[in-house]
Every structure is written in C-alpha cells, then in structure tokens.
Amino acid sequence: MNVKESSPRTELKERIIITALTAFKKNGIKSITMGDVAALPKMSKRTLYELFEDKETLLKECVIYHQYLSKKMIEGIVAGSTNVLERSFKTSLPNQKWVTDVTQINIKDERIYLSPILDLFNGEIIGYSISKSPNMQMISEMLDKAFEKVKDTKGIIFHSDQGWQYQHYGYRKSLEEHGILQSMS
C-alpha cells in the first residue's frame, strides 16, 4: 500500500489497517478473523476481501503501515531536535553544554558499554553508567546520576548523536522535565 496516495479506496484501506492493528494488539493476531476485522468498521466481508485478498495480505499491509508510521515518527523527532550546539564545543561556565555518546569497550572476549555525560566547560564527567548492553536502563542511570549531582539543569544544551537511545520518548521527556535543551547531529 502506498500511504502517500489519497483516494476514497486508499483512505478506506488505511482505516481498515488501523482498525486491524488495534484489534491485533488488543486480542492477538491468531484470535482475530477477517470477519472480526470487517465487523469493527461495520463493513461487509466482501468489501474487506476486495481490498485484502486474505488475512496474510492484511497482516503484511499492517506491518508496512506500522513501519511507515515508525519512520515518520523518527523523522519528526530528529527534525524537532536540531543541532543547537553547531560544533561550538567551548563554553565559559560549567553546566551550559553537555555531550554524551555510548562507547563500546572490548575487554578480552567481553563487550561492555560506557555512557558518560561530559561537561564541555572543563571535561568533567557529570554522570555515567556502564552496562553489558546498550539499553535504555543504562541511559536512565546515567541521567539519574547527572540529575543527582547537578540540581539546576534548566537551560543546559545536551548534545548527542541521533542514536535510538536519544530519540526514545522517555529520554526526551526526562530532558524536557529538567529544562534541558536537546541537541542532535
């Protein structure tokens, strides 16, 4: 399905896909039949089968639609988080500009991940976490340590790359709640 098209048929397909996605998430894919999907937007099974050959075709369209929405959401997040820092890595006062990145460290046959927050004023590590996997818990721990150390974070520019961790809703919300301006490149 090309979600950029706009016709009554395409709009109907999109409405069915959204309805099916909701039903699949709520009740499970196996338990939902094509009849159940047709009943939700109150349409005939015939109309449903004209648009989608079978349940497998509907599922494929649901996956494509979900991926499209996910991509658009990520593009919106990245577009909303501009590069405020603009390669200006110097600052005259502490806690004006922070930077972070996840670094993989190989020790013998093991990988560990380090996630520090560096103050660009003097290179001080404000907070950090170490983990065996680069997950959101690691990022949350890093932020918690920084917020414990620095109470007044309002107005800090916090720069990172565009990694998935920094696009995560929880991360962005935490920065916003602490008055921190997110910057990404």
From TrEMBL:
GO BP, one annotated term: DNA integration
Gene Ontology terms, MF aspect: DNA binding
SUPFAM superfamilies for this protein: Homeodomain-like, Ribonuclease H-like
Domain Integrase catalytic: 90-185
PROSITE patterns found in the cross-reference section: HTH_TETR_2 (PS50977), INTEGRASE (PS50994)
Pfam families: rve, TetR_N
InterPro entries for the chain: Homeodomain-like_sf, HTH_TetR, Integrase_cat-core, RNaseH-like_sf, RNaseH_sf, Transposase_IS3/IS150/IS904
Domain HTH tetR-type: 10-70
Signal sequence region: none
Record keywords: DNA-binding
PANTHER family: TRANSPOSASE INSF FOR INSERTION SEQUENCE IS3B-RELATED, TRANSPOSASE INSO FOR INSERTION SEQUENCE ELEMENT IS911B-RELATED
Name by which UniProt lists this protein: Integrase catalytic domain-containing protein
